[in-house]
Specification:
Layout: H1 83-96
Length: 98
């Protein structure tokens, strides 16, 4: 279990939580984001288990949440295949003959 970038999996080895302006050294994604927080849960209201936290609209953008705690988890890469995108591209290619 490591603390790592939600986008690329680059480990965060510095003690403590990242600041509002901290970015991943590999992919330049913001690190102090909802997607890296222990309270983030896509199944609850506002996708946050911390009831006192102000709602954050962009979960992958840096924010000033005072309840942020960097989560330790195993890295699982994102799947690049998006079936909706692939279907839309296929329909567009049929339409335009590409």
């Amino acid at each position: 279990m490591t603390r790592h970038c939600h986008n690329c999996g680059e480990p965060w080895t510095i003690n403590g939580n990242p600041g509002r302006g901290e970015v991943c050294m590999k992919c330049r994604a913001d690190l102090r984001v909802c997607l890296n927080c222990t309270s983030y849960d896509p199944r609850v209201a506002q996708q946050c288990r911390e009831r006192r936290a102000d709602p954050v609209l962009e979960k992958a953008a840096g924010n000033f949440c005072e309840y942020f705690e960097f989560i330790k988890r195993a890295w699982t890469p994102k799947t690049e295949a998006n079936p909706r995108e692939a279907a839309a591209r296929e329909r567009m290619n049929k339409l335009f003959g590409g």
